[in-house]
Amino acid sequence: MEESFVKSFLGDLNILSSIIDKLFQYKDKKDVRVNESITAISKAWNHTYNYLRNENGEVIPKTNLSDLWNEAASKTRLVDLSLARQLKDKSRFWIHPNLPRQNRILLLTEITDEIERLEKKLE
C-alpha cells in the first residue's frame, strides 16, 4: 500500500512540475513580447519626437514615421490590443496628417505613460 502511494505521489509531483514549467515558459514568452513592444514604441516615439523638434512641430506626411508606428502596433497587438489600435491610428495619421479623424490620436506624452504602464508588466 505504501509503495503505491509513493508512486502515485511521485507521479503527481511530475505532473505538477510539468505544469509549473509550462507556466514559466508562458511568462517568459509574455515578457519577451512586452519587451519587444516597449522597444518598438520607444523607437517610434524617439523618431517622432526628433522629427517634430527639428521641424518646429510642422506636421507633413512622413512614411518612415508611419512605418515605425505600424511596427509598434504590430509588436503590441499580442500584449495590449487597445493600445495597438491606437498606435495603428498614429501610423495612419503620419500617412495623411490633415485628414479628419474619427479617433483621437495619442499624444507623445500619453504614449510615454503607456510605455511606463507596459514596463510595470515586467516587474
Largest sheet: none
What structural class is derived from the secondary structure elements? mainly alpha
Average pLDDT works out at 88
Radius of gyration: 22 Å
- The beta-strand count equals 0
Number of helical stretches of at least 4 residues? 4
Q: What is the domain total for the residues?
A: 1
Gap between N and C termini: 46 Å
Residue share in β-strands: under 5%
Q: Which shape, going by the Cα principal axes?
A: rod-shaped
Query: Which sequence of SSEs, written as H and E, runs from N to C?
Result: HHHH
Low-confidence stretches: none
What share of residues is helical? over 70%
Topology:
Blueprint: H1 2-54, H2 63-76, H3 81-95, H4 108-120
Structural description of this entry:
The protein has 123 residues and is mainly α. Helix content is 77%, strand content 0%. The chain starts with a helix and ends with a helix. The model has no long low-confidence stretch (mean pLDDT 88).
